[in-house]
Write a structure and sequence with these properties.
Elements lengths: L1 E4 L6 E4 L2 H11 L7 H14 L7 E4 L11 E5 L7 E5 L66 E2 L7 H12 L4 E3 L9 H10 L2 E3 L2 E2 L4 E2 L6 H9 L11 E7 L1 E3 L2 E6 L2 E5 L5 E4 L10 E9 L5 E10 L12 H18 L6 E3 L5 E5 L2 E6 L3 E6 L10 E9 L4 H17 L1 E6 L6 H20 L8
Parallel strand pairs: 6-15, 10-11, 15-17, 22-23
Antiparallel strand pairs: 1-2, 1-3, 3-4, 4-5, 7-18, 8-9, 11-16, 12-13, 13-14, 16-17, 18-21, 19-20, 21-22
Helix pairs in contact: 1-2, 6-8
Organism: Paraburkholderia guartelaensis
Protein name: Transposase
């Protein structure tokens, strides 16, 4: 294995030692046994490849000898997470342990909130690390572990591992930027599918197949038409042919997702039902993000096999949410962001869809998933670096003892990520007063941390 320069791929920076190459293959090869020293070696290689902002080097694997045909790995760092390897499918497949690739050597069948795990020490919920894993393996399909069981009303509980299709949906929305909103984007009028099309065009599943060829956003497209297009594509080996349909539905009703158009209602009824994420159990708070799997049944007929739905804030701002209570909080946060912008503070809002890492000195990292996070920088004086600040927001939408106990388990961890502010939402006459107090508290805290003097109370 060798590290090559990203901007000049023919230039070799250095060869990996035998120990480093073996560590990478054990770390990223599915079914391989990882040794304790492998993590340190892999982290050092990733740091060399990615400086924290930009990819500087690619890792070229020597398992293929043909010149120009060697498979490559790049390094990626999401906005809030550690560096990790990503396969570059356009450079061909590996002929070594990396042919069956995993982003990290975590077990996939462990619940992240196992009752036996100490708070924050659960197996963290992470994004799908490889776009090729959006496709079913041959002969697995709907029976794949972690997939839908076919029930129409299954709900993913807060803190539990998502079914596979839900994890794919969250990864797509996270990577395409729908879980992040800068204050300047509050008035953005760009259409949802345009952002998704631009994102999908850059994702390669194989040297001949891009994500944009299988991911589509118009539910009125005839299923036979789409599967005919899929049948004509050069397909990755050991993967079943299918397409992914992603859109924002106006309504979920009687096991179907409905999209209202000028020509009437477009109704999609997955054969194996629709599962839903979050706490919106009655599915009565539209709109909803919906991700459906389109394939052929055993008789060769095109169908929507299964689907996963996630509550969204609105059609104009389809930030994925867990409940209608979070929608109340999010509206107030949008108002806060616009108000402090007038005072010179630019805020970015995050809706964490996966666990956030909380690093500790001389102790293992902990994990949590806040409802929202706000990040912003101080209004710095000339010549002084602007400090980054983070406020963590939790929506308290129930008084159930089990619910409150789960919240308490992670609040101390969240306080190490940033300043924690709670917002209680209930269906009573006092909500307006609580909302006003929450707005004032968050706005005042942002201005104070940003170093903006307040001439009058918020």
């Amino acid at each position: 294995m060798e590290l090559v320069e990203r901007d000049h791929p023919g230039t070799v920076r250095r060869h990996l030692s035998a120990e480093e190459a073996a560590a990478v293959r054990r770390f990223c090869g599915d079914g391989q046994q990882v040794r304790p020293e492998d993590v340190r070696l892999v982290e050092a290689v990733l740091e060399e490849m990615h400086d924290g902002r930009h990819v500087r080097l690619w890792l070229e694997c020597d398992c293929v000898r043909a010149p120009g045909g060697r498979p490559r790995l790049t390094a990626r760092m999401r906005e809030d997470g550690p560096r990790h390897f990503v396969r570059m499918h356009q450079y061909g497949e590996h002929h070594c342990a990396l042919a069956s690739f995993r982003q990290t050597p975590e077990p996939e069948d462990v619940e992240p909130d196992d009752d036996c795990a100490r708070p924050g020490q659960h197996n963290p919920l992470r994004p799908v690390g490889d776009a090729l894993d959006y496709l079913d393996d041959l002969n697995e399909g709907a029976a794949r572990p972690g997939g839908s069981t076919g029930s129409g009303g299954g709900v993913g509980e807060r803190g539990r591992r998502l079914p596979r299709l839900g994890r794919i949906l969250h990864t797509l929305l996270d990577d395409a930027g729908f879980a992040r909103l800068h204050v300047d984007a509050l008035n953005d009028k760009s259409r949802t599918w345009e952002r998704l099309e631009a994102y999908a065009a850059d994702q390669a599943l194989s040297p001949q197949l891009s994500l944009s060829q299988i991911l589509y956003f118009k539910p009125w497209t005839h299923l036979n038409e789409k599967m005919t297009e899929v049948d004509a594509l050069v397909w990755p080996k050991k993967k079943a042919r299918s397409a992914l349909l992603l859109f924002v539905a106006d309504e979920l009703r009687a096991g179907a997702a409905i999209k209202k158009t000028s020509m009437g209602e477009c109704i999609l009824r997955p054969e194996k039902g629709i599962r839903a994420g979050g706490r919106d159990q009655r599915l009565t708070q539209p709109p909803y993000w919906v991700l459906g799997v389109v394939d052929r049944d055993r008789d060769g007929n095109a169908r929507v096999r299964e689907a996963f739905a996630q509550h969204a804030y609105s059609f104009a701002r389809p930030v994925p949410l867990d409940s209608r209570y979070e929608r109340v909080t999010l509206k107030l946060l949008f108002d806060v962001m616009a108000w402090v912008k007038k005072h010179g503070v630019d805020v970015t809002l995050w809706k964490p869809l996966f666990d956030r890492e909380v690093r500790r000195t001389d102790a293992p990292s902990q994990w949590c998933r806040p409802d929202f996070e706000l990040t912003f920088r101080s209004v710095a004086a000339v010549g002084v670096a602007a400090r980054l600040h983070r406020i963590v927001i939790e929506t308290m939408g129930a008084d159930d003892p089990d619910y409150l106990e789960r919240k308490l388990r992670t609040q101390e961890i969240m306080k190490r990520r940033g300043i924690l502010i709670e917002h209680r939402v209930a269906d009573d006459a006092a909500q307006k007063e609580r909302d006003d107090a929450f707005f004032r508290r968050v706005a005042a805290k942002i201005l104070h941390l940003a170093g903006v003097s307040q001439t009058r109370p918020v």
